[in-house]
Amino acid sequence: MRTREKAAAAREAVGQRLREARHAAGLTVRDVARSLELSIGTWSAIENGRTGVSDERLRAAARLFTTDPDGLRGAPPPAPRGTWRDFPPLRLDPPLAGALEAFAELGYHGASIRTIAQRAGLSVPGVYHHWPTKQHLLVALLDLTMADLAERARAARAEGDGPVDRLTLLVECLALYHTHHRDLGFIGASEMRSLDEPDRTRIATARQNVQRMVDDEVVEGCRRGLMTTALPREAARAVVTMCTALPQWWSPTGPSSPEKVARQYVDFALGVVGATG
User: Fold this and answer.
1) How far apart are CA 152 and CA 182, in angstroms?
2) 239-253: per-residue pLDDT in tens?
3) Which of 114, 127, 153, 232 lies 20 to 30 Å from 81, alpha-carbon distance?
4) Domain of 120, in residue numbers
């Protein structure tokens, strides 16, 4: 296949994936065009493979559709990481790695694009080439955090038999995540206020969905008489808040491993909800 034909086939494939993602999100072409500040004709041309789509616009579409930009590009899926208890080193592109380090140390408002570029080993134009604003970097990091945490939480919960067992696994999962990935957990807890709309509401909803998993197990545990707290939803929120606060004090150079902390926090959580056995 000649180069021009290959490029046309690639545009058509990306357009088809964008169309399928839009349908899955329940959006119209008009909805997408308005959200991405495009004409309807331009978005229609993208979906039909008549024109290409920039990386920035594709990432914006992925955020709108709540999906993975790599999947829209047609990139091969990442290699399986193992179970929800496995935490291989994070593999972030340099601007995201630089942003994560800078946000965790200096805070979102204290970190400049120049600082992020220095941490990433890039020039300022090198960061701006792929990431138009600091806000885009924060959104990408929080999207990554919530997608990974939700996937792990669902996997952990699925292994449980009964509400006490499922709560135990969820707390273990939350504690492991917020120690192994403490920088992501730290900015997830501290920088929600720095998000602009509509990303703030969207990411807050993803956080609430994880909280709801814990809520449901505590409510069910109380209904069955397996937990005795008189305030199941409040107790569930206290349990999650306890776990999300771990990045504020836990250190990999301290005396307790993530696994030891997770075991301790499971005991704390069972005490908070009044587990009976």
Assistant:
1) 15
2) 999 999 999 999 999
3) 127
4) 94-130
